[in-house]
């Protein structure tokens, strides 16, 4: 004990003298007292107070603070700790235990070390440095394991395995970013670490500018994370697989609502379609060419001098009749809104905001002015309840004529020069504390406001800036990417990484925002877009037009066929979003989620591959290659375009012509599809095509359907059943329906892929609830009833 104290004092003195002229390093010190207070364990050192709470058996929170009396608010966390804490103390340690985790707290110096309940070491403080401060900056140094890998942090450049990289979170407008730029637009301070076959997660809930170093600079001894100020406030997740860690993280920070079905269709955007007529012409061309699409966008030029909540009356003279015409063609309209409110007396939002003091200020009370598209602007203080309500209510200018989607841009917040002074105040916060959450609070205000206005209809919100928890309010896209191959691959990694941090409805600008893609890149990127949760084509002002018919007849054909594939997949995709809504598991999943221990999935050649839902594996391929190196993890796989069988656990070189992106179905995959429709308002032919690929192992899929637009699903109006495949007993079962809704599909068309080649003899008949039916090829059709249906093959 004495020895520890002595070494702590020596360390302190050494640091103090080393940094005397600079910012001193202040160490955490040793525990002087420990006591349970309410539902926390409170440990005091001379320098700080540490608190420990149990949120669930697999989630423990540690918060270490030098500050006293600060409010314990979080923008991200929506759960409360459990009522009691189970701890034991001896002379050296305090042990906090749950059924899944053991937190061993060393008293001198104070260190926090996590183990599984059966004693396997998950993560420890670095024994020398643990937590310390330099000025207000707080850092936690942690032990780095030899084989440790890291995934997460959401929208970040770099490799899937973040070992050896470091990152900064500081939401920024970064047009022209490249595959190495950092920081970008969003902050998700959550990562998963894995070593020795074990997994853990860590969410650093601190909104200041923050830093993560995954062994980039410390001779493989330490990883570290910290922030410019605030508390060392983190949640430790101890579930022993990545999917369960994501489940816990999204339990803690919330999960997405069911998205409006139309947002899963094809979306066409551009900065900007300059008039209502131009948008109507584009929409009509989709219909003339029979290319399915659901959404058109208005970028900034629909407004009167970029004044938010206004329309340019010359180019959009009658918004309602314009949107009605779009609707009659089966299109929804999404309009952009930026936070900057133009300084212009007489402009409603300006006058109201000034009168009510709704805008960010300098410390002397003067309103902050930054320049964005409209010129000089004030910025709403979205951290205030009354401001969020005011902002939300202003959307009537858009909802009354019929807008249903609200694109929140420039909310890092961006202002020309990108350097809003740190003394700018939002309510009780200064800029540095909350910059990383501004975009999320804007999205929240937009979501809450439009949800209120639209009544029972689901709004669609899309935001560029975000913080952990944004999934509760909004979709995100990855900002201003560029039209080259490396950006396409980076975009996919970012989509997959955002999925780890709870964001499932995620898109990239298909084709690349800046620059002009080659026709090959456009085709390739579009085919990847089919398997991107949000499928939006968007391009910058001045670039070549990007719509599917601008690329020559042969390419248009491929683009069309791919978009049609997206529409066929909608029942599968919608059910996959239901999974995100229920469990937080993303739709686009890095292979690291399911195949965590397989080192091949982190290999830079294969790191962009992902599972799209439970059953499909997609391998992105650059536009200049027509073959691809693909790694298929353990199991059986079938190329969906050819049916070709692949044994997993191996890498293959496969054909990848521009009209056939490598997509594989897992053995046992159950993928419900539908016929091609031109937009999601169409009813289709009423046939649900359930595709099952043969596998040696049993599998399950939860099929989910609701009206796709209202909140009635929250009150039981949905249609859900489990579809299971049992090869041992040669059965495919459609479970009893739960929910009050009758399916829009009256028939089920069951397609058995590769059953013939896998089971002895030819499958010619199946029995459906005992009734023998002939197979036509691999297909059998029967009524979609609410009761259980058992299909037996022989
Ligand atoms: C920003 C957005 C981009 C948009 C443009 C004009 O650059 O990221 O998507 O088109 O602003 O509003």
UniProtKB/TrEMBL annotation:
Q: Which residues form the DUF5110 domain?
A: 688-754
One of the Pfam families matching this protein, by short name:
DUF5110
Q: What are the residue boundaries of the Glycoside hydrolase family 31 TIM barrel domain, all occurrences included?
A: 257-575
Domain of life according to the entry: Bacteria
Keyword field contains Transferase: no
Any idea where the Glycoside hydrolase family 31 N-terminal domain is? 50-213
User: Record's SUPFAM superfamilies?
Assistant: (Trans)glycosidases, Galactose mutarotase-like, Glycosyl hydrolase domain
Give every Glycosyl hydrolase family 31 C-terminal domain span: 584-671
An annotated Gene Ontology molecular function: carbohydrate binding
Which residues does UniProt assign to the signal peptide?
1-20
Q: Which CDD domains match?
A: GH31_glucosidase_II_MalA, GH31_N
The entry's keywords: Glycosidase, Hydrolase, Signal
**What GO terms describe the biological role, i.e. biological process, of this protein?**
carbohydrate metabolic process
State the PANTHER family in the record. Answer: ALPHA-GLUCOSIDASE
The UniProt family comment states:
Belongs to the glycosyl hydrolase 31 family.
Can you name this protein? DUF4968 domain-containing protein
Q: Which organism is it from?
A: Mucilaginibacter agri
